[in-house]
Amino acid sequence: MYKKNNGSTEQEILQNQFSAYVKKAVHNRRIQFLTEKSRKFRFETPLFDLDYLLFDTTDIIQEITDHETVRQALRSIKENERRIVLERIIEEKSFGQLSDELGMSYKTVASLYYRAIKKLRRFMEEGESK
């Protein structure tokens, strides 16, 4: 098991410094990960445990929601926007992963995503006001 040294030799001092560095690096990365995750969830509502890829593409929208307005809103956006939105929210893929898969730049994928979200919000607001 791990035995803490007393730092009496130069090698033990170096080992203690390195251990402190690694501990601090892991701690900082954990904080960064949690911050990114919470920032993402402020703007998105993730849908967990939903393997929508098993469904036919025409049934995806039907399977992920019971609310007719949401279904109509998802049908109202373009196919590539819908794919980006669904993979970003359901599969929690990053823009980098999506850009690699779709052969688009990071900024293009991000722009399409946020444009689609804006269209969905507008559609939903119009649906509620009717």
Can you put this structure into words, describing what you see?
- The longest helix has about 35 residues, at about 10-45.
- With about 130 residues, the chain is mainly α.
- About 70% of the residues lie in helices and about 0% in strands.
- The model is unreliable at about 50-55 (pLDDT under 50).
- The chain contains six helices and no strands.
- It has two domains: about 10-45; about 50-130, Winged helix-like DNA-binding domain superfamily/Winged helix DNA-binding domain (Arc Repressor Mutant, subunit A).
SSE diagram, text form:
Elements: H1 10-43, H2 60-64, H3 68-76, H4 79-89, H5 95-102, H6 106-129
Low-confidence stretches: 48-55
CATH architecture call of the largest domain: Orthogonal Bundle
What's the number of extended β-strand segments?
A: 0
Q: Between the first and last Cα atoms, what is the distance in angstroms?
A: 67 Å
Overall number of structural domains: 2
Give the class from helix and strand content and strand pairing.
Answer: mainly alpha
Label the overall shape.
elongated
Helix content: over 70%
Mean residue pLDDT: 76
CATH class of the largest domain: Mainly Alpha
Beta fraction: under 5%
Counting copies of identical and different chains, the oligomeric state is single chain
Biggest sheet architecture? none
At CATH level 3, the topology of the largest domain is: Arc Repressor Mutant, subunit A
SSE pattern:
HHHHHH
CATH H-level superfamily of the largest domain: Winged helix-like DNA-binding domain superfamily/Winged helix DNA-binding domain
Helix count, DSSP H or I runs of 4 or more residues = 6
> What Rg do the Cα atoms give?
23 Å
Organism: Vescimonas fastidiosa
Domain RNA polymerase sigma factor 70 region 4 type: 68-120
GO molecular function: DNA binding; sigma factor activity
Protein name: RNA polymerase sigma factor 70 region 4 type 2 domain-containing protein
